[in-house]
Amino acid sequence: MRAHPWLTATVVAVTAALLIVTLLGGWARSSPEGPAQAEPGTTVEAEPFRIRLDEASARFVVNGDGAEPGQAYVVVEGQIELAAMESVAAGTLTDAITADLTDAYDQFGSPIKVPAPVVRVRADGSSLLGLGPGLAYDVEIVFIVAEQSVPRRMTVTLLEHTRRASALDGDLGWYDEAPVARVTLDVAPLPAVRPEPEGLR
């Protein structure tokens, strides 16, 4: 018996959709309640990390690096610990943190729609390029925004990942990030005066 052409087309469409979703990393996970609201200073389990966000401030300078004219830094201080048994690269960490900031830029000065931070080790200002098992760092999570768009309050969204094999090459990795918690922080304002560049003093 021949299958109805509509049925055949439906099966083909569903199969193609499933293949595309698998190749792109699977379905995004979500809970009916949505991400939990966490208080500042609370440690959040956002697999494979434990993340604590303490306070936020707007700055013209971070660790000696001045913001470009018309731009400013929004810096969230806290602590990040790797809870997994394998090392994790910086990309997984930056994918685990975003914020409700507007007019954001990446670290190279290009406008971006989804704010992505650079995570720095607070002790020496170095960029956190990866984390080893069981290690915890006091950090500054640095976003770049237009100076006029520095907020009085901000909400940081923390996302968890799933450990699974890649559909492309079979390698194990952290994929399928999904929001697990949101933290709302007051943002200390910018200084009244932008510091002059060193060469102009």
End-to-end separation = 86 Å
Q: Could you say what the CATH topology is called? A: Immunoglobulin-like
The main β sheet shows up as: 11 strands, mixed
Corresponding CATH architecture: Sandwich
Which shape, going by the Cα principal axes?
globular
Q: Give the quaternary arrangement of the chains.
A: single chain
Q: How many discrete structural domains? A: 1
How many H/I helices?
2
Written as H for each helix and E for each strand, in order along the chain, the element string is HEEEEEEEHEEEEEEEE
Range of helix content: 10-25%
- Provide the CATH top-level class: Mainly Beta
- Rg, please? 21 Å
Total strand segments: 15
The proportion of residues in beta strands is 35-45%
Average pLDDT works out at: 86
Supply the helix-strand structural class: mainly beta
